Amino acid sequence: MFDFLIIYSTTDGHTKTICERIKNFLNDGNVVELLSLKDAKKVDLSNFKKIIIGASIRYGKHSKDLYKFINLNKNILDQKKSAFFSVNVVARKPEKNTAETNPYINKFLRISKWKPNKISVFAGKVDYPNYNFFDKYIIKFIMFITKGPTDTSQSYEFTDWSKVDDFSKELGNNY
What is the pLDDT of residue 28? Predict the structure, then answer.
């Protein structure tokens, strides 16, 4: 039996990067499996003691596949020690960077009806140079409205890696 399963749902890869950091931290004395949401659909979740799911936001929403996965596996998720975190750029703002104050966490919990044992939110990344034309200018508009960076020649990472490390430590302890 594995100690941890970490599942990521990512749009541009940053959530996977965060999950890899958590995995590297938890690997010390634990057996940890890291899978994409697509690959996790093929796995028996009962083979894991603890399940962690990290998911990104795009245009104000987590992916529909994430909700389908939670719905299909809710019974086993409720039986296991579990954790969820959302990665979104709104969390760059101090008043929206906790699980209690982040609107996307609150929306996720309301829609999914899942009650993970541990919940967090991490500020994400705006990676203009790697976006397609449409995404680049829609995200630029959103950033303009929310007083974020709009120089499309740059990438902006807002992730507080010490917060990710603290979350990892809590997961490593019997939360």
Answer: 80
Q: What does the alpha-carbon distance between residue 140 and residue 75 come to, in Å, rounded to a whole number?
A: 40
Question: Which parts of the chain have pLDDT scores under 70?
Answer: 1, 174-175
Phi, psi angle pair for 85, to nearest 5°: -140, 150
What are the CA-CA distances from residue 67 to residues 34, 70, 71, 80, 131 (Å)?
A: 19, 5, 6, 18, 25
pLDDT at position 1: 67
Encoded tokens for 30: 């634990």
- Who's near 107: CB < 8 A, 6+ residues apart? none
For residue 24, what are the CA distances in angstroms to 27, 32, 56, 112? Answer: 5, 9, 20, 28
Domains of the chain with CATH codes: 2-124+159-172 (3.40.50.360), 125-158 (no CATH)
Inter-helix orientation angle 14-26/161-172, to 10°? 40
- Transcribe 68-91 into DSSP letters: HHHHHHHHHHHHSEEEEEEEEGGG
